[in-house]
Write a structure and sequence with these properties.
three-stranded antiparallel β-sheet; 9 helices
Length: 313
């Protein structure tokens, strides 16, 4: 089935997303757009020369006109946070970049599903919903999908089980106010906090919730300090999201979308369990949370709203 995907931003993240899409065979055509046209050309050419060993795919660089009739548009363009730079300053810079992108991409791809990857992802998703003119159910950020993958990886490593057996999520902001709703977390069908005692004879450790959540929040910073960027984890995350859009069956994912009263929260984009299918957002699931978890989600929403109130869109 034909599936045209445009990626805006051919840096480390955008190019890794493109490569992951090729390897997984998710797209039939990929367009790479970047203000650095030579970089986009080089990345596309390098990947294209590997396609004799992958599924048939047409990957090429281009401009906004080449994005016409895209099924999916992935926004990775933006600047990374610099040492000493405030989160608010970074947000305003990337809001300004996204404003320029919105004006150009929505004219040629009005029917696409839009995946926001650039940070701060919840803020930029909010901006897209409010100012792009694209239906809100076609706009979602990667949100805490990567955080969720990091959580599942840590739990899988802790108990030496396959990550596919771990069902746990990170909710809220993709940032410092994110949290794990532990009441929803299980391995197989066993609540994670009871898993160790159920595995008789293995002498497994009890979970330290704070330690696990700190690992999830700090993973990105550790990776960036070590190698300068995070790209493989988010590349796999975006590819999984694109695959869910074409799979024919809906998936439950922690993407960032505009909430409209769920858990008493409105007019802000953050991550809760969300049903995603070929037509974009189908539904937001109001999973049963404890009172403390609802309070954490509302705190995350308030944190984002405080930033939004200080930005110029």
């Amino acid at each position: 089935m034909a599936n045209k995907i445009t990626i805006i931003g051919a840096g480390q993240v955008g190019s890794t997303v493109a490569y992951a899409l090729i390897v997984k065979g998710v797209a039939s055509e990929i367009v790479l757009i970047d203000i650095n046209t030579e970089r986009a050309m080089g990345e596309a050419m390098d990947m294209r020369q590997g396609t004799p060993y992958t599924k048939a795919i047409n990957i090429h660089d281009g401009n906004y006109d080449d994005a016409k009739d895209s099924d999916v548009v992935i926004l990775t363009s933006g600047v990374a946070r610099k040492p000493g730079q405030s989160r608010l300053d970074l947000a305003q810079i990337n809001v300004d970049i996204t404003k320029s992108v919105i004006a150009q991409i929505t004219k040629v791809a009005p029917n696409a599903n839009y995946i926001i990857v650039a940070n701060p992802v919840d803020i930029l998703t909010y901006q897209f919903v409010k100012y792009s003119g694209i239906p809100a159910n076609h706009i979602f950020g990667t949100g805490t999908m990567l955080d969720t993958a990091r959580l599942r990886t840590k739990l899988a490593d802790t108990y030496n089980v396959a990550p596919v057996n771990v069902h746990a999520y990170v909710f809220g902001e993709h940032g410092d106010s994110s949290f794990v709703p532990w009441s929803l977390a299980n391995i197989g069908t066993i609540p994670v906090d009871k898993y160790a005692e159920c595995a008789e004879g293995r002498n497994l450790p009890k979970l330290n919730h704070d330690e696990i959540e700190e690992y999830v929040r700090k993973s990105g910073g550790i990776i960036i300090k070590a190698k300068g960027c995070t790209n493989y984890g988010i590349g796999a995350t975006v590819t999984q999201l694109c695959n869910c859009l074409t799979a024919g069956k809906d998936s439950l994912l922690t993407v960032s979308t505009m909430l409209n009263g769920e858990y008493g929260i409105s007019d802000v984009c953050l991550s809760i369990l969300t049903e995603v299918g070929g037509d974009g957002i189908k539904n937001r699931m109001v999973a049963p949370l404890t009172d403390a978890e609802v309070a954490s989600l509302r705190h995350s929403a308030d944190t984002l709203k405080d930033i939004i109130s200080q930005l110029h869109f």
